[in-house]
Amino acid sequence: MATPFARVSGASRLKGAAFREPSDFADGRIVLSPFQFQGKGNGLQDDTGAINAMFDRFRDIVGGGAEQKAAVEISLSGGKWRVDETIDATRISSWNWKMTGGSIYGHCAGKPIMDLSGSRGYEINGVGFIGDRDNMPRTAWQAARLEESMFCDNIMFLDCSSNGFFSEAAWVAYGQETANHHHCTWWNNHHDAHIGIIEGFDAHPFTSEFGTVITGPTSNINISMTGNCDLRYLPFGNQWEVQGVTTGANAVVTAPGHEFAIGDPVCFAYVGGMPELSKLIATVTAVTSDTFTTNLNTTTLGTFTDGGLCIRRQTKSTLYTARTEGLSLPDLYIVAYGQPQIQVGFPDTTFPLFKRLRMPNVLFEGSGNENNVYFDNDPVDDAKLLGFELSTYNANATVSLLGIGPDALSIYGPTIDVSNDLWGVDMVNDPDQCSMYGARVVYSTLAKTRHADMQRFNGHITSIQSGNTYPVGLEPAI
Question: Which InterPro entries does UniProt cross-reference here (predicted)?
Fold first, then answer.
């Protein structure tokens, strides 16, 4: 039987990492591995117990964390870690601790693979989370403030990923401060879920097995995704090859092996000869093993030539965020099928604000989504967005770049620059619910900004079509 912290044969599987006794703190780092705690790492047996024993030892080592003398690293290298229950990574308040390498296979139905609630000061580097479809985890990871441990800050996810199926989202972050995702790939194959949730109000409440999660409004500040992060509903297991589409009313789609049922909503992508199918969402009205009939009239959509995909429509936005101060998403790649890529909520009636939402050089892809960014201001009557930046060379919304509803939204200091709009849509879906102050807009045409129909608009608009810049609603300084 291996002894924790002894030099065991598992060390060779960790590419020479040195496992040290706590007494070795002062002159180097200490590395912990589930192999030291009888973990198998074969992807077949449940290693939850070994991993949680490792985290318990970690807490013993770092204690409160304020006097930590050396870096502590958890290495998952050399193994495929199956977990049938949640990994307890909660209540670690320490600086410069790290988790590296390896893949965690979640078979913990309805639970998070890893719970990071009440933990701070960590870097998770190169860790992959895989959600099993038949034993679907709720999330790859969750993080929140606990009543017993109120801090959840100074966090880095570097080159991490999620894949497979998660019932709520790939991850949920509630009440984090100063968190950065860099060059991460967050995917969810499940259609009835988000991919990421960033919120300072428990619009998506959850519990922790290891502490009491706070409720209601809380600080949620300084969050960023950098280095071309990739968020997408990846419909593996929910998409099928199109081999034919009839022309006419109640179009019939040939897609052998499809799993659609009557009433299911369907999106389309890359259908040869019928590109505008990508704008539409069909409802299934009849099925056979190889075909399904829809409510679509394809008379004016061209003639099918070859190829394409039919995709089970997602039911929720790719990224949901609410009650946040300082969210930056530069160079983000984000994909949605039938829902907005980004949904900004205002669930807290005592704080009808969102401050500093930056999305420079974002790439929107997918199909069937009415808006690229949707501001869901229910139940707030007059929501405010203080500071907004959006630039893209690929807006693929089918109705409008920005969706607003059901109530009014005022945007202060917006910078909007859209150099390519796939379907030539308006900037805003419901301009009489929108006001913009101090705006700087570059858009296809002056008319499509709908500025004249807004409650109020002042700023500058540059029309790509005319090449002119128009000052609108500006008054001389007093």
Answer: E1_FCCH_sf (IPR042302)
Tokens of residue 316, six digits? 């929720």
- How far apart are the C-alpha atoms of 36 and 42, rounded to whole Å? 14
Handedness of CA 357, 360, 364, 368 (dihedral sign): positive
User: How would DSSP label each residue in 353-418?
Assistant: EEEEEEETT-EEEEES-SEEEEEE-TT-SEEEEEEEEEEES-B--SSEEEEEESSEEEEEEEEEEE
Tell me how far apart the alpha carbons of residues 266 and 282 are, in angstroms, rounded to a whole number. Answer: 5
Last residue of a domain, one of 252, 285, 312: 312
> pTM of the full predicted structure?
0.94
In a domain, 44, yes or no: no
Please report whether residue 367 resides in a domain.
yes
The residues, ordered by sequence, that sit 6+ positions from 363 with a Cβ below 8 Å of its Cβ are: 331, 332, 333, 334, 392, 393, 394
241: tokens are 């090859």
CATH code assigned at 265? 2.40.30.180
Alpha carbon of 369 to those of 188, 318, 398: distances in Å? 17, 11, 6
Q: What are 268-290's pLDDT values in tens digits?
A: 999 999 999 999 999 999 999 99
Q: Prior bond to 414 cis, omega within 30?
A: no
Residue 339 lies in a domain: no
Q: Which residue's entry shows tokens 């502490």?
A: 211
CA–CA gap between residue 352 and residue 181 (Å, rounded): 26
pLDDT for 439-466, tens place per residue?
A: 999 999 999 999 999 999 999 999 999 9
